Pectin acetylesterase
Amino acid sequence: MKLIFAIRLLYYSCFVSGIVSSGSERRTQTVLSYLENDVVSSPPSSAKPLMVGLTLIQGAASKGAVCLDGTLPGYHLHPGSGSGSSSWLIQLEGGGWCNTIRNCVYRKTTRRGSSNYMEKQLPFTGILSNKAEENPDFFNWNRVKLRYCDGASFSGDSQNEAAQLNFRGQKIWLAAMEELMSKGMKKANQALLSGCSAGGLASIIHCDEFQELFPQSTKVKCLSDAGLFLDAVDVSGGHTLRNMFGGVVSLQEVQKNLPSTCLNHLDPTSCFFPQNLVANVKTPLFLLNAAYDAWQVQASLAPPSADPNGLWSDCKSNHAHCNSSQIQFFQDFRNQILNAIKDFSGSSQNGLFINSCFAHCQSERQDTWFADDSPLLRNKPIALSVGDWFFDREGVKAIDCAYPCDNTCHNLVLNDDSSATGSGSGPDSGSEFTSAMIYSQSIRLTFTHIYMLCIFLLPITCS
Ligand SMILES: *[C@@H]1O[C@H](CO)[C@@H](O)[C@H](O)[C@H]1NC(C)=O
């Protein structure tokens, strides 16, 4: 009797500690929009992160591989050392898309459309960190961040002369791979293509092409972080994301570079959605995604255009403010995600980490990738889950139970208070998607130890 009571108590504690949330720790200003900028930048950490300089790809212009505004594309490379010197990690930068002439023209005046505006140095954190204690499996690899300046997940190939727009994502991808091969990647004995958000979608689209760069003897895998963009119905019954993707695909002629295995039975826009691609990727692929992806909640499911009266504003900005029917809407979304990856997860070479968090991009931030309190599934943080899968130490197919059962989440909370954003002034950063983002975290404190017990006891109480 006492044992059962104790288990009940623990179960209850798990439940409650999952709901209680939020002491905001950090505020970053960001134009979320289809530019979703600083969502991925890391919170200040005690250790100074490694800063890595930008290299422009000099040979790219002659190949027509240029950013939206015609400037050279670029990347940041930190060379590997010791046992990692023949291993290569390529991280494709994310940052939304542009789907109209107007917002592509605006993008030319940002770092997402022109190397003139790119940071000359970027911090290498999370999966890019050079410290074993922050990045246990990849810290001494050659690590590359390829900058994103085409607006179509490195996959478009067209132009608009009237607006002086270059849509050369596919050419940028190819020119970058050629450059890195010449810098030693052709001798790689193992390689991982990763990317987050729009870069996570790109890592799915380019995964098999990446594998084909190497001989069969090279161990090649791909990681898509927050790239599982779902063709979902929004809160007003519309198809916000599909409409936007449709613009990206037609404007930038993305269909030229999408797989025929999809195009032979679906329209090009559908073939830009990972749900129609992942099962046919031949190379081992790991999908890391929050089940309630914060960007999709904000920009695809409940964007202002689908919620003109702002009924979702509170809930969207902080999931703790959602009522039961709103939570149910998110649960349906989670179910659609799980449905979309059913065939994919049947393949033993693939990996999964789908945690029930309101997060976005968990591999680039140190706090979510590998830290004392980083998110866990089956008691394992993301860095070790990805490492175990890459090195075949253990199969990893981790799917969280539904919200609110996970109290290890680092949730992103949005603040819609437009007065907090001083930077929104371009056509793409106006009212619709300008938000300040607050980083918050579910309260864990003393619940940590209870949580550990819960991991072991929940299956017993549920079965
Ligand atoms: C939850 O909020 C939405 C939006 O305000 C509203 O339409 C719905 O009726 C509410 N549901 C419940 C169960 O209160």
In short: Residues 311, 323-326 surround 2-acetamido-2-deoxy-beta-D-glucopyranose (CB under 6 Å). Confidence is low (pLDDT under 50) at residues 1-42, 416-463. The chain has two domains: 1-19+445-463, 20-444. The longest helix spans residues 2-19.
